[in-house]
Design goal:
Layout (H helix, E strand, L loop, with lengths): L9 H11 L12 E6 L2 E5 L5 E3 L5 H11 L7 H4 L4 H14 L9 E5 L5 H8 L3 E5 L4 H5 L5 E2 L11 E7 L8 H11 E12 L4 H6 L13 E2 L2 H10 L3 E4 L12 H12 L5 E7 L8 H6 L9
Parallel strand pairs: 4-5, 4-7, 5-6, 7-8
Antiparallel strand pairs: 1-2, 2-3, 3-9, 8-11, 10-11
Helix pairs in contact: 4-5
Length: 301
C-alpha cells in the first residue's frame, strides 16, 4: 500500500488517463480524438473520422428524448422524422434512376428508422413490399397500415431484403457500425442500401461550425464526412460504395434558397450526404477452381 507521500507509479497514471479518454462509438478506439466543436462539444476520432458528441448520451437519456417527441409526432419533426412526401418522391425517383431500374415494383425493401413513414408509404405506392423498423413510432406506423417492428432483432431470422433505405437515421445511433453490420446481413446477395445523413464536410457545417443547425439537435450524436461514411460502410462488408449526384428540392425553401441548394448539390458540398452501397453477389466456384481444390460438387448447367 502506498502512503500519502509516495509517488504514484507512471503505469497507474497511464491506465487512469486512458480510462478517462472518450471512446469512439464507431471504431471503439479510445484516446485518439480531437475537439471538433466546443458548444455543443463534439470530438473527432483520428482513427476513423467519426465526429461524436461528448459526453456521449446513454440509451435511457435518448429513449426519454424520443418518447417525449412522439407524444406529438406531427409537431416534433426533429425527433420523429423530417422527411415529407415531396422529398420522399424525389428520393424514390433518384434511387430508381441510380439503380437503373424501370420501377421498384415487387422489391422487398426495409425502411430502417422509418420515422413518420413518408418514404415507406411512397415506396409502397410504387408497388414495393415494405417492412419498417421504428423503435418509438411503431404504433404510429402500424395505424397507417405499415408492417413495422421495434428493431432489427425482432425481425424473423429468415427475412431478407432486395434493398434497404435508411434516411436521416445513422446520426442518431449509439453504435452505427453495429447497426450497419446488422443491415448488411439482412440484404440478399446483390442487394442495395440507400443511406442519408447530414454532411459534416458540407459548406453549411464548415461555415456555421458548432452553430450548424444539425449539430445543435440533441438527438444528433454522430456525424460523418463522405470519406468517413464510405469507410464505415466498407468496413462492415458493403462494396461499390458511391455518392450519387442527386438534386433534391425542398418544398419549404424560398426560390433563392432553392437555387442555393441546387448549387451546393451540384458541387457536392451541400448539407445532405446520400450514399448507395451494395452487398456482394454470391459467386459459384468455377469448374477450374473446384478441380484445383479436389471438389466434386456438380455445377448447375
Amino acid at each position: 500500500m502506498l502512503d500519502s507521500g509516495a509517488a504514484v507509479p507512471r503505469s497507474y497514471e497511464r491506465r487512469t488517463a486512458k480510462m478517462d479518454l472518450p471512446e469512439c462509438p464507431q471504431c471503439k478506439f479510445q484516446g485518439a480524438a480531437s475537439v471538433h466543436w466546443r458548444a455543443p462539444r463534439f470530438l473527432r476520432c483520428r482513427e476513423c473520422g467519426t465526429i461524436f458528441r461528448d459526453p456521449f448520451p446513454g440509451e435511457s437519456e435518448l429513449a426519454n428524448y424520443y418518447r417525449e417527441g412522439w407524444k406529438e409526432p406531427e409537431e416534433n419533426v426533429v425527433e420523429t422524422g423530417s422527411t415529407d412526401g415531396v422529398i420522399a418522391r424525389y428520393l424514390a425517383d433518384s434511387l430508381t434512376d441510380t439503380l437503373a431500374l424501370r420501377s421498384l415494383s415487387g422489391m422487398r425493401i426495409l425502411d430502417f428508422g422509418a420515422g413518420r413513414g413518408a418514404m415507406t408509404l411512397e415506396l409502397m405506392k410504387r408497388g414495393a413490399k415494405l417492412v419498417a423498423v421504428e423503435p418509438f413510432g411503431y404504433k404510429f406506423l402500424a395505424e397507417l397500415g405499415i408492417s413495422v417492428y421495434r428493431d432489427l432483432a425482432h425481425l424473423p431470422d429468415e427475412l431478407t431484403f432486395d434493398g434497404i433505405v435508411s434516411l436521416e437515421t445513422i446520426e442518431h445511433l449509439r453504435d452505427p457500425g453495429g447497426v450497419l453490420a446488422g443491415l448488411y446481413k439482412r440484404l440478399s446477395p446483390g442487394g442495395w442500401l440507400l443511406i442519408t445523413t447530414p454532411n459534416a464536410a458540407g459548406l453549411p457545417a464548415r461555415l456555421m461550425g458548432q452553430h450548424w443547425r444539425e449539430a445543435v439537435k440533441p438527438g444528433h450524436i454522430v456525424f460523418f464526412t463522405p470519406a468517413a461514411l464510405s469507410k464505415i460502410l466498407e468496413k462492415n462488408g458493403f462494396s461499390q460504395v458511391q455518392r450519387p449526384r442527386w438534386f433534391i428540392r425542398y418544398p419549404r425553401a424560398s426560390p433563392l434558397r432553392a437555387l442555393l441548394h441546387f448549387g451546393l448539390q451540384k458541387l457536392a458540398i451541400d448539407g445532405g450526404l446520400r450514399m448507395v452501397a451494395y452487398r456482394r453477389q454470391t459467386k459459384l466456384p468455377t469448374a477450374d477452381l473446384l478441380a484445383e481444390q479436389g471438389g466434386k460438387r456438380a455445377l448447375p448447367e
